[in-house]
Each structure stands twice: as structure tokens, then as C-alpha cells.
């Protein structure tokens, strides 16, 4: 490799920027922001003021903590769904696996005789095990009975959510409370927080999970098998990759990550399982949107998750300061995915002209 290969030149910078702008992800995000601005103009609102309220509310001193807290759950679910999606498998059972992990972690936290730090660790592991086991059940339905994974994972969510709701309302319910919630955990059974914020060590755990996903995807033979299966399942089967075994492995990892998110949720404030608190924010669908936007790529999933966490938290600030409904941010998410599915690209002629100009200048 010569020194010119590693030197950053204006030509190489322009070509990289051109490639980034030609990306369907970039085009989809820009199209979503543009159409959102048109919606705002149609309602008589100032798009710049609204978007500024979103950024200030989500990234300002008063909102960054909420963004990171929300981003913990969004990133965790995005990773959970991106892992099988990388191989062309769609897991729609994130809600069930997350809730089952949450109620299992809560039960462990309430009845474990171990010291508080060990109880927290045990609750996290129990939540991951519950989520993994339930996701494997969906995989077995496909492998053994031919039920499509998309259908089995989705339908299995309902009994899991109902079981957790029953446990929170009856056997584990806090006495004297009118809310469907479990008893508060013993003192010290909680994830450590950073300073006085609501951000917990759970953020570190999901970031480490993202790093492990990146390493597996880019540096291991197993990651190559996953990508190859996603690109061409017939070719991967011809190469000797067993789809049934791969489905079991990926779904177990996916369910474990979803269960981890549920465990983190109950081990954070208010340190108990509250019926509906894990599913109401729609983390599963936001995570799926982030995974789709990133094409299930590890780094892209991380960035997309943060992007949607900003939209979710910033939408509340926008509603408070500009009276624009926060549902606009949900519309933006939908528009981005629609355009991404359509593989929207900027006019190819413009970029081809830029590339030709750079090549001519380099001669």
C-alpha cells in the first residue's frame, strides 16, 4: 500500500460525501424532515422553531438524561431485533420477551436471599434467560411445525404480556395499592445511576452489547454466516449453513437482549414491575424501525436508535414549547421508513456529474 492510498485528499473527501449522500438512509431522513416541514407549514407553525425545540429538548441540559434513558431501551430492543434481521429473520415478539424478562427479573429481585449487588446481577441474568427461552420457543414453532417466525413470535407475545399482567395484579401486587404493580424491591436492589440523573448502568450494558454485536458481525466466521444468510439464504444453505440451527441461535440472542431491556426497566426507577410500563412507550416498534433504517448494521443501529430517541424525547419538548403535537415525530419516523422501503435516492445525474468533475480535476 502506497502513501497515496492512505492520504486524505479533497477528491477522496468529495467522493465519500457523495457516497454518503447517495445512501438511501440519508435520502430517507432528509425526505422525512422535508415533508415534516411541509406539514408544519400547513398548520401555520415555523419548521425551524419546531425542529429547534426538538433538538433543544432532547439534547439540552434538561433533556439529555431523558434521551439517554429512552435510548437505553430503544437501543436494546433495536439490537434484539437487528440480530435476527441481519440474517433475514423477523422477530416481532420483542414485547413479550421484554415483559417476560421484566417480570422474571422483578420476581428474582423480590425473593432472592442474596446480597443486593448479587441480586441485581442475578435478576439481570434471569431476565435474559426468560427472554431467550421464550424466543427459542418461537424458533421451535418455525423449525418443528412450520409456523413462520414472524407469526409465531408475534402471537406468543400476547400470553407473555397477559401472564406478566396477572402476576403484577394478583400474586405479586403491592398490598393496599390501587395500581397494577409489584411490591417495591428491597433496599439496594437497583441499578446504579450516574450522578443524580435517571441514566443507569443499563446504558453501559446495551452499549457493550452493541460492541459485541459489531465484533461478531465484522470479525468472526459466525457473523459472516449471518450476513451471508441475510443476503442469499439459498447460497448459505448450499455452503452448509443450517437455517434451523441458525434460527435457534439468533432468536436466543435476540430474546436475551429483549429480556435484558425488561430487566433494566424494572431495576430502574420506580424499582418495581408496573403493568404496561414496558410496552406503553412502544420500544419494540421504535427499535424495529431503527434496525430497518440501519439495515441491521451494528454501528448504524446504534446511530439510528439515538436518532429515534431524540425524536421521541424532543417531541414532548416540541409540544410544550410550540404546541405542535408530538405525534409529528411519529409521522417523521413513518415517513423515513416509507421512503427507505422505496429506496429513494437523489438524482443520479447530479452525483455522476460531480464524480466526473472530480476525476477530470485529478488528471
Walk me through this protein's architecture.
Residues 1-6 and 344-351 have low confidence and may be disordered. 73% of the residues lie in helices and 0% in strands. With 363 residues, the chain is mostly helical. The chain is built from 16 helices and no strands. Helix 4 crosses helix 14 (298-322).
Specify the biggest β-sheet. none
Class by helix and strand content?
mainly alpha
The best one-word shape is globular
**Extended strand count:** 0
Mean pLDDT score: 89
Number of helices: 16
Strand content: under 5%
The sequence of SSEs as H and E is HHHHHHHHHHHHHHHH
Ends: how far apart?
21 Å
- Taking Cα atoms only, what radius of gyration do you get, to the nearest Å? 23 Å
- The percent range for helix content is over 70%
Poorly predicted runs: 1-6, 344-351
